[in-house]
């Protein structure tokens, strides 16, 4: 079975807090299991760590792995509009 087609993806270097010359940001509009790792592997890059900063229209902020918070009413309205249940 060949590769699964996905929506376009954007990649750019991360100028904010430069940890190393190998840090960059990838924006997915449709994410498949292990997609980022497979994309990097295709261009001979090894993923050491992934950090999710947004989930759809929601910014994760300073949440650590395993933590959660309640959505604000504005976030809930935005999320409902995004998925078409508003």
Structure described in brief:
Keywords: Isomerase. This protein is of the alpha+beta class.
Could you characterize what this model shows?
Keywords: Isomerase. It comes from candidate division WWE3 bacterium. InterPro entries: PsdUridine_s_RsuA/RluB/E/F_cat, PsdUridine_synth_cat_dom_sf, RsuA_PseudoU_synthase, TruA/RsuA/RluB/E/F_N. One of its GO terms (molecular function) is pseudouridine synthase activity. This is Pseudouridine synthase RsuA/RluA-like domain-containing protein. With 86 residues, the chain is α+β, with helices and mostly antiparallel strands. It has two domains: 1-51, no CATH class; 55-86, no CATH class. 22% of the residues lie in helices and 16% in strands. It contains two helices and four strands. It has helices at 35-42, 73-83, and strands spanning 9-13, 24-28, 54-55, 58-59. The strands form two sheets. It has a two-stranded antiparallel sheet with strand order 1-2. A two-stranded antiparallel sheet has the order 3-4. The N and C termini lie far apart (38 Å). The model has no long low-confidence stretch (mean pLDDT 82).
């Amino acid at each position: 079975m060949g590769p699964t087609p996905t929506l376009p993806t954007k990649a750019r270097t991360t100028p904010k807090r430069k940890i190393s010359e190998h840090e960059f940001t990838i924006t997915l509009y449709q994410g498949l299991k292990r997609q980022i790792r497979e994309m990097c592997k295709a261009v001979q890059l090894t993923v050491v760590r992934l950090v999710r900063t947004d989930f759809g229209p929601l910014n994760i902020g300073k949440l650590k792995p395993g933590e959660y918070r309640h959505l604000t009413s504005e976030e809930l309205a935005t999320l409902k509009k995004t998925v078409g249940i508003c």
